Amino acid sequence: YASMNLAKVGNSTKLKSFLTPWASGEKVFAKAPFNTPWRTMIIANTAGDLMLSRLMLNLNEPNKLGDVSWIKPGRYIGIWWAIHMEKYTWKAGPTHGAKTENVLRYIDFAAKHKFSGVLVEGWNQGWEDWKDFKFTEPYPDFDIKKITDYAKSKNVKLIGHHETAGNTVNYENQMSNAFAYYKKYGVDVVKTGYVGGKLDGKQPHSSQYGVRHYRKVIEEAAKYKIMIDNHEPVMPSGLQRTLPNLMTQEGVRGQEWDAWSKDGGNPPEHTTIIPFTRGLAGPIDFTPGTFNFTNPVLPNTKVHTTLAKQLALSVVIYSPLQMASDMIENYENNPAFEFITSCPTDWSKTVVPDAKIGEFVTIARRDKATDNWFLGSITNKEARTVKLDLKFLDSNKKYKAKIFRDGKGADYESNPYPVIIEEKEVDSKTILSVDLARSGGVAIILTKL
Predict the structure, then answer these.
(1) CB atoms within 10 A of CB 273
(2) Chain centroid, CA 433 distance in Å
(3) How far apart are CA 304 and CA 295, in angstroms?
(4) What is the pLDDT of residues 129-169, one digit of tens each?
(5) Model pTM score
(6) Which SS3 state, helix, strand or coil, does residue 75 take?
């Protein structure tokens, strides 16, 4: 079915709905009788309660894949940010990012810090013109067997990449062989991309044509027990309940906009809004984790946060597959990196102690594997003091709180780097008072004693 859109009617509070049409103008092709999708409205007492609703997810059909024990959340790294910073290139050449020796270096770093995988873009033929990608033909300097054998020995996975440039016909003609090729080498996660204009130069992404294509990709991947991270998607609608190998999707102004957007990048309030807009639709592959705020390619474009806020985003923005996006050199020997390497992506419970859309967000999540809690609190361009009520902790239990907060003089524009790391003993009756810098944040690990 075509994706539904909402548009404001003039200056009123009315919204008008419309379906994204095919290139030929038709909205939907269907054979009667047929069922239309659910239309929902979430109404809650607080902003936080909006985030906790599972209404849309649960209106989707249950899991149709059967045994899904092969589906594994995780946190990964990749060569992607270095390509945006023009240290490497997607296409083959002297500074090709996907060279075997460079990928092995990233795998070593991932193994050292217990990341689950390494995403490698620009490994296959076709990046010269972004048109005729070949999904089973690597560049000569990318030795996939050597890389995946080495990764396996380090307990790290190669995360695959299929950039299509929106050429869906070319992709569908190769898709089965492409997934089989990756499966042969033990690759079980693939990031798909559709950078460019309309699909095949004519069909809107959110049309029925696009919706059918994206679902076909997810279903085909499932045959090979491959998980999908879908970029440039149709707006999510809870399909991951039916097809759980759909792990996460973009569909948002992600952190990559802070690398190349000529409008300067995402504003400070951006991440205090999207949990209540795009975030209500499902997991977001936002790719937080920037530690170096200098942009040599576009000096006036940058990440508009403090470093502490980057840490907190690992909790605030939900994605069961989440990337620590920066270059590995920028993580080395930085004590704040401990929060990212400690923070899981698979949760048993989420609470929203306090939030005001566009101003600040505080979210706490409990790790499914350990019962430890992780808390992230962020603010917009206004500095503020937040009161963090820890009443969600188990009563009559003590916890060690390891706090990563904005340091003295921290400011997203003039000095985003200062971070203070401290430890306190807390319990469910504790209320922590923390000063957040402008576009700042605090990230906390709560370990039961």
Answers:
(1) 16
(2) 29
(3) 12
(4) 998 999 999 999 999 999 999 999 999 999 999 999 999 99
(5) 0.97
(6) strand
Give the three-state DSSP class for 407. coil
360-392: b (≥16 Cβ within 10 Å) or e = bbbbbbbbeeeebbbbbbbbbeebeebebbbeb
Between CA 105 and CA 280 the distance in angstroms is 37
For residue 95, give the DSSP letter: T
Q: How confident is the model at residue 11 (pLDDT cuts 50, 70, 90)?
A: very high
Distance CA 167, CA 372 (A): 44
Q: Cβ distance 69 to 250 under 8 Å?
A: no
Task: Collect all residues with Cβ–Cβ distance below 8 Å to 231 and sequence separation of at least 6.
Answer: 191, 192, 193, 194, 195, 249, 250, 285
State the alpha helices, DSSP H only, in 136-266: 144-153, 168-184, 208-223, 257-260
What tokens were used for 145?
């067997």
User: Who contacts 281 (Cβ-Cβ below 8 Å, separation ≥6)?
Assistant: 56, 235, 236, 237, 238, 251
The predicted-structure confidence for 366-376, as pLDDT tens digits, reads as follows 999 998 999 99
Task: Give the helix/strand (H/E) hosting 52.
Answer: helix 47-52
290: closest CA among 316, 273, 315, 309?
309
Domains delineated in the chain: 4-58 (no CATH), 74-343 (3.20.20.70), 352-448 (2.60.40.1180)
Residue with tokens 């007492």: 45
d(CA 87, CA 67): 42
* Catalytic residue list: 256
* Per-residue tokens: 5: 């859109």
Outline where 343-418 has alpha helix (H).
Answer: none
Measure the CA–CA gap between 422 and 425, rounded to whole angstroms: 11
Rounded CA separation 170/161 (Å): 15
